[in-house]
């Protein structure tokens, strides 16, 4: 089937390259002219796209796909009945789109993303120390009771939870624990999002690179260059198959 498709593409391109001999029909000639003009303007816009602009557009696309997947996940079972394979496919596409959206947002708008959760992170880190100070000033035992409850939780093998009574020390330990957790989360976020963002950047750069190559090959009529690139790819695929 793939070979037939590639051969059909080569036939169409050969028909186009025949020029006026193949465009004697006015309708065919008008259609090809419209195709050439449309692709020419599209290629001119595409070759000038910057990576940042392309990633921003791709992030919007990821968001739309995620929203559509979410709706389809609940609507399709009602329309066509339960289908595990279809539900699994839609959920996978939706989760991948959400992750793609988040990876671009995290890498492109990192400072803004951190600023959005900065107040919550600061409260999580410094909150226990502040509560410990309040306990010390007001004579309450909130942090002590909290620490006693935590100390009853079975600790991992080889780890000993010390018994603390000073509310400032308890707050400091909890603050340190939350700070380590956030630091690990921050590191994991980078480790996971950078490859995904790189893949998204490749998705943007590849068509831009093709558009620039087409413009280099055929600067006056981009569609001719596109057919040349497409014919080359189809031929190489047929040879490989």
How does this model look, in words?
- It is a single chain.
- By secondary structure, this protein is mainly α.
- The protein has a domain at 48-108.
- The chain has helices spanning 2-17, 26-47, 51-80, 84-108, 110-138, 142-151, 167-217, 222-240.
- The radius of gyration is 30 Å and the shape is elongated.
- The mean pLDDT is 83.
Task: Summarize the model shown.
The chain has 241 residues and is mainly α.
What is the chain-wise order of helices and strands? HHHHHHHH
Distance between the termini: 11 Å
Overall pLDDT: 83
Principal-axes geometry comes out as: elongated
Low-confidence stretches: none
Q: What is the radius of gyration computed over CA atoms, rounded to a whole number of angstroms?
A: 30 Å
Helix content estimate: over 70%
The number of strands is: 0
Which structural class matches the secondary elements? mainly alpha
Count of DSSP H/I helices: 8
β-strand amount: under 5%
List the SSEs and their pairings.
Layout: H1 2-17, H2 26-47, H3 51-80, H4 84-108, H5 110-138, H6 142-151, H7 167-217, H8 222-240
Helix pairs in contact: 1-8, 2-7, 3-4, 3-7, 4-7, 5-7, 7-8
Characteristic key phrases:
single chain; 241 residues; 8 helices; 84% helix
């Amino acid at each position: 089937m793939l070979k037939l498709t590639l051969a059909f593409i080569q036939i169409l391109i050969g028909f186009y390259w025949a020029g006026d001999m193949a465009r004697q029909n006015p309708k065919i000639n008008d259609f090809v002219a419209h195709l050439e003009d449309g692709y020419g303007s599209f290629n001119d816009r595409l070759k000038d796209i910057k990576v940042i602009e392309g990633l921003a557009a791709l992030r919007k696309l990821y968001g739309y796909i995620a929203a559509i997947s979410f709706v389809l996940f609940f609507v399709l079972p009602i329309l066509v009945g339960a289908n595990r394979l279809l539900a699994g496919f839609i959920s996978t596409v939706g989760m991948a789109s959400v992750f793609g959206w988040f990876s671009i947002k995290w890498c492109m708008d990192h400072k803004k993303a951190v600023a959005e959760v900065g107040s919550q992170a600061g409260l999580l880190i410094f909150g226990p120390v502040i509560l410990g100070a309040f306990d010390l000033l007001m004579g309450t035992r909130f942090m002590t009771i909290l620490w006693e409850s935590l100390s009853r939780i079975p600790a991992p093998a080889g780890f000993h939870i010390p018994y603390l009574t000073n509310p400032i020390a308890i707050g400091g330990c909890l603050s340190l624990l939350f700070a380590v957790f956030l630091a690990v989360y921050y590191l994991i976020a980078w480790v996971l999002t950078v490859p995904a963002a790189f893949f998204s950047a490749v998705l943007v750069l590849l068509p831009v690179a093709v558009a620039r190559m087409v413009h280099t090959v055929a600067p006056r009529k981009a569609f001719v260059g596109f057919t040349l690139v497409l014919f080359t790819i189809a031929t190489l695929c047929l040879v490989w198959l």
